[in-house]
Model the fold of this input.
Amino acid sequence: MNKAMNEQEQSALIELIYQLGDDDFILAYRGSEWLGLAPHIEEDVAFSSISQDMMGHATMYYHLLEELGEGDADGLAHLRKPGAFRNAILLEKVNGSGTYLEKPDYDWAFTVVRNYFYAVHKQIRLESLRLSTYEPLGDAARKIMTEQYYHLMHWELWFKQLVTSTDVAKKRMLSAVGKVWKDFGGVLTLGPSYSEMVKAGFIEDENLLKKRWLNRIDRIFEETGVPPQGEPLIESGNGRKGEHTQDLADALATLSEVYATNPASGW
Amino acid sequence: MQAGLRFEQLTNEEKHQHFMERINRGEKIEADDWMPDDYRTSLIRLISMHGISEIMGALPEKEWVPKAPSLHRKLAIMAKVQDEMGHGQLLLRVAEDLMAPLGNTREDIMQDLFSGKLKFHNVFHMEAPTWGDAGMIAWLVDGAAIISQSMMLDSSYGPYARALKRICAEEVFHAQHGESIILALAEGTPEQRELLQDALNRWWTSLIMFFGPKSAKETGNSNADRNIMYKIRTKTNEELRQEFFTKYIPRIWALGLTIPDETIHFDEETQLWIYQDVDWSEFKQIVSGNGPRSQDRLDLRRRSYDNNGWVREALAAQKAI
Done:
């Protein structure tokens, strides 16, 4: 640690790292549900590699929390109640109807848009975290960025290809953009303790990050002919405050099904 | 150039003889080389079945990807299943090159899978109801796969041999990942040991079946014999099964697990493992799509294929521009 943090700073830092870890954790899970169901085999290979990377990123963040005295990483991933999660609600939403085991009617357009918009934001967020006053966070960000670069390229290619293709594809993609937009504000916010995070220099101002995100998305919209969407909303609730949907509770039950039978035992 | 011209003038019989001389010298056949029709069809059958098995094989393990009981295990099983998908893709590319002169494509492979014409490995038709099964699949099913694939590393068909080289290297990591899961369970609580023993009981018959019947008598076809003649493979099903026993039975016993076959033992005189043979008509039923999870898993793939039809169309339209 660079210098001694006061209690308020430490709790803001912990809050921030929960957001970062939980965002990646839950979206990696949603990605892993697609395994074997992607539009073609090459995509199955690429997408599962991305999900695996993201699960690795979440693990890195949980280890940072472990170092900050929050308990062990496996417990953080598997034993917290939904209310203790700080991911944005958009990222916990199901991929479509059905479950990953039964009748999965998953929506590829929603998956592409959600992942692409998130990848753009993640890139911007990492660029800011790279300069964090909390050095372990800066180190983690630099490591993650080497993989994130490819994720962003991957989803950007999908987005551009589909949104400029057949009428059916265009229609599905625009409808997915509308759906994602309604909750993307929840990804962009840093939650109630954001001013402490910024004051301590852990990350930059959320408004600044949001502006960078909007600029980049506007450029892509212009390039691909997607109409402007206005201000991103937080319709389903604010995950940064611990507000969540049943989708998260169901996902966590699956993620911890085996671990929770005996957390004390080695697996 | 001149040699090429001369080759074209040979009769089919002479070409066949030339081909056999090449493979008997240990030369590798490449995708564009002349090959007998039944060599090509044997390879297509073998490699598309192998490729699609890798892809269908991702499904039983996928059931356990999100549920893997620690972050470390989650990452490991994600990596493993991704590898399997990658193997499937690599093998389908090899099969596609062989199919091209016949005017067939990946689409035909997928349609043959959906219609049941293209079969996949018996093990991937089975249930995997607990985390113990995830361990058992990675340890013993992948262990069995390494044994049967290693014998083809020197296959007469170069592209297949090269793909297998990479696949086998990765399978070794999978078997280690499986062994690590198994060890953790074996050293764990009584409940965890029970999970493990139950999984072994469930998988034993499937593992015997994995290598296929002893001889053409049980199946009524001679694919294996022809593949040996063409040096696509080098060992019989039974030789591979015996190798598997020799490698894994001592390890299973060392963990204190019981093999669900009271008769199994090593016969010093014949230097062979004596074991209870399985019901090969059941094997036929399973690989024909009547296993406990055959249709559920096929349905998953059919459903995703249908749901994503618009994506394939959109990509095709982009290519056409």
Notes: The beta strands of chain B are 265-267, 272-274. Residues 83 and 170 of chain B are 7 Å apart (CA to CA). The longest helix of chain B spans residues 71-99. Chain B has a mean pLDDT of 94.
